[in-house]
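cron nightly-structures :: item 1 of 1
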Amino acid sequence: MKTIDFVYFNAGGGHRASAEALQAVLHKERPGWRIRLVHLFDVMDPNHSFQRITGFAPEDLYNQRLKRGWTLGLAQELKILQSMIRLAHPTLVRRLQQHWLKTEPDLVVSLIPNFNRALFESVSTTLPGVPYVTLLTDLADHPPHFWIEPDQAQHFICGTPKAVVQAREMGHSWSRIHPTSGMILRPDFYQPPTVNRADARQHHGLDPKRPTGLVMFGGHGSSTMLQIARQLPNHQLIFVCGHNLALAQQLQALPSTAPKLVLGFRRDIPDIMHMADFFIGKPGPGSLSEAVHLGLPVIVVRNAWTMPQERYNTDWVLENGFGLVCKRFGAMRPAVDNMLIRLDELRANVHRYNNRAVFEVPAILARILNQSLQAATEPSTHEPQPYDQSCLTAS
């Protein structure tokens, strides 16, 4: 049995969601593999000292900012964070080395940015011959030192041609770059709808014949949804607020002349998307990929508040004709009017997109594992150097 570790964290929902989606597919397709999900901050801080001292987990501050829409200045803060990671690099590597020595995986797959230098170094120095893979859960890298590090003998799984080009520009060989047809989606996004659209709308109190928009801003919602609702009282909309109960109550209280549906956290997002004709939200790679996969043209915004790693996503929307990009959420009314005029054209574009990434990755990982096994059995002219474990005694 081969043991595959997927490294994730909970800053935003996409990293864990991608790991869980792959885990579900691999359980069926590769029953001889043991899949483990490794939460990076549990390795870094196994006693949760940070949370005990501060009262919140390391990812909570980031998630609260997304919830409130406080994303201005994140580009500068990202540089500060990356500087702190570089300063802490020796400690990070040492903690990770201790973890790998105890757990001994056969393959390590990172689904997180910013920490790939420390992760790669810890694996390569502790478990020589164990392959290390970075699976980008963004449509593209945001260099430097975000997803793709230069001078690391590792593999990359890239969901867009843009990310493939970026990996090549960093000096990585074609043999270590593995393109897929898109981002990782949960397997249930590939299931046919259980009821037809008209019946589903009617069941939820919506007009079956009226064009319907889906407004969604991740698992914690966003106050921006209130601004959108006030601009579009005459349009039939579905609002998914995630865990933000207060936002759901505020949206429900807003007056509107068209039917609306306000929902909290839902697991059945594919069924909700099947009820809609178009999508309004932030340009996150997960929600964009889900909407486009299910045939929904999108309306997104790019401005100073757009997170730096998501700015390319708006280019991806325009380059492929998947929807509209606005400069501000205050311009939703003309954007929706334009969407409804162009709906057939944009729908045709999104229907041409065929994302099978979650089913492509297992074969990629199998090839990488097989290559590492072949390399291990080939005779070497160099005597391997024993690993010095004395550096692991410090905490």
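cron nightly-structures :: done
Residues 143 and 355 are 25 Å apart (CA to CA).
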